[in-house]
TrEMBL record:
This is CCHC-type domain-containing protein. Keywords: Metal-binding, Zinc, Zinc-finger. InterPro entries: Znf_CCHC, Znf_CCHC_sf. The keyword Metal-binding applies. It comes from the Eukaryota.
Length: 266
């Protein structure tokens, strides 16, 4: 017999009376095996609850065994079994029903679990299909809106950033990076108006003429309106010619503007 520490001392103190194996078992059980009191059994039973994803059959049988050790009645067993359930819906459904014994309670819970397990499949299928269709519709609408936003309007110029990734400035003349417009070696580009989306003048010239004509058109009289309309056209042409003259003088292409000025090329 191999005993150590306290068990060895216990045996040496009683070895004269422990002359048989039966006596040794009885004395050892009295000393070291603690008897389960009603309080301990009740605590163990009340702490036994169904774990998540634990089968109902496994939880039910273990819970009923602990209740039987305490000699509880059928109603008391039912109450303790339902209190320890993981599912609140199952607890509410079983609490409203009457069961003659614990076996009837078990069968009722298994039937309920089977019906619940069958129903979510249909619900999930219909719900997932409706969600997928709504997502497709929303995605199609978003794609359409994004496509409409990305398509540039006719006559618009693509606006590039002032600087590139290297931090180099953009030239307003050739739209390339690495130098300023005053240092550009390429021919000067025609002025571009962002107001009317045409070349030949800047927006400030177009805006000034339009504002003057808008104010003047408020005055009564057909002759006055006709005069200001003609003045607007002449002003726009004069502004365009003036800009082109300056550009031609810089680039040496003044001969190209002779038809506009009513002159013959030299």
């Amino acid at each position: 017999m191999h005993l150590i520490q306290g068990a060895r001392d216990w045996f040496l103190a009683r070895r004269r009376i422990l002359d048989t194996w039966t006596k040794f078992q009885d004395k050892f059980r009295v000393t070291y095996v603690r008897q389960n009191t009603a309080v301990c059994r009740w605590k163990r039973m009340s702490e036994r609850v169904q774990r998540k994803d634990e089968p109902i059959q496994q939880y039910f049988q273990n819970k009923v065994k602990l209740c039987a050790d305490l000699r509880l009645s059928t109603e008391e067993m039912k109450e303790q079994v339902l209190v320890g359930l993981w599912s609140r819906d199952l607890f509410n459904a079983m609490s409203a029903r009457t069961h003659v014994d614990v076996d009837a309670l078990l069968h009722d819970m298994l039937d309920y679990e089977y019906r619940v397990r069958q129903r979510p499949e249909c619900m999930r299928t219909s719900q997932s299909s409706s969600n997928s269709s709504s997502k497709k519709q929303q995605s199609g609408a978003d794609d359409k809106v994004s496509t409409e936003k990305k398509v540039p309007r006719t006559g618009d110029r693509v606006k590039q950033p002032m600087r590139n990734e290297k931090g180099e400035f953009r030239c307003y003349n050739c739209q390339e990076y690495g130098h300023m417009s005053k240092d550009c070696s390429k021919p000067r580009a025609d002025p571009y108006c962002v107001g009317c989306k045409t070349t030949g003048h800047f927006k400030r010239d177009y805006t000034n003429v339009v504002n003057e004509v808008s104010v003047s058109e408020e005055e009564p009289g057909t002759a006055a309106r006709k005069y200001y309309k003609q003045a607007r056209n002449i002003s726009v042409v004069a502004a365009v010619v003036g800009r082109n003259l300056k550009s031609a003088e810089r680039t040496g292409t003044k001969a190209l503007l002779s038809p506009l000025l009513g002159q013959r090329p030299a």
